[in-house]
């Protein structure tokens, strides 16, 4: 088999059977491609035969190229999945990936933006848009991230058939998991404003949010618009589109939302992923205390 054969089978498995996101598919394919370039394999069985010491040597070489702990951990996770898949392809259904532990990672807390900053960013991208309809488009997308807790990919997956938006929206998130999110009036109005201004016809099966040529909108354009607005407002580099989703979760938790409800709204597979926001809320509370308490002031 050739490298292309291995990668095509891996891509098909990730896309059609595991329903991984495009970002995950690209990352996992890249990791497999680097391994296949490092050492030539002629069969799935040879890939399955990779043991812990060999995989450790390979990762040591990757680290020598400048990879940090987080990147090494991601690479190891992708390669373990690829090697386990190779075992299935070789007919060894009891085969497992090498039991190799990745580097310990210090888990950082998400950095939410304040409600005022979230609103200001949404208004700024509208003002900075090259055309009125582009500004309205970017504002509507960012409001979906902050007001409904969507990921960028989820917001951009909204179809023309979903219009006009109602009080709730059905979203397909990671792992093809479906969830229902509430849509606030301000979000509905922002989307309606964009749709009225959009110069391109929006089909029932096509995306609502389109690029300058009428095709599907690239997520990078939203990231670029957010970066421009962030600089104009003097906000830190941590004020990213995904930070708006963090802010949605943090502000809901601070207002009394329970973790289980928040888990459903965010589409987290496990409660552990949601519990990080309790730490964020506590950190915010402590910051407020330090800034307000007279003995903490200098």
Task: Explain what this protein looks like in three dimensions.
This protein is mainly alpha-helical. The protein has two domains: 3-89, DNA polymerase, domain 1, CATH 1.10.150.130; 115-241, hpI Integrase, Chain A. It contains 13 helices and two strands. The protein has helices spanning 3-17, 22-38, 44-48, 52-64, 69-89, 115-128, 132-148, 152-156, 185-197, 219-233, 241-254, 259-266, 271-292, and strands at residues 168-172, 178-182. Strands 1-2 form a two-stranded antiparallel sheet. The termini are far apart. The relative contact order is 0.09.
What fraction of residues sit in β-strands? Answer: under 5%
* Biggest pleated-sheet summary: 2 strands, antiparallel
**Span of the ends, CA to CA:** 69 Å
CATH H-level name of the largest domain... which superfamily?
A: Intergrase catalytic core
CATH architecture of the largest domain, by name, is: Orthogonal Bundle
Number of domains: 2
Determine the CATH topology of the largest domain: hpI Integrase, Chain A
Mean pLDDT value: 80
N to C succession of SSEs: HHHHHHHHEEHHHHH
Task: Identify the CATH class of the largest domain.
Answer: Mainly Alpha
The helical percent reads: 55-70%
| Overall morphology | elongated
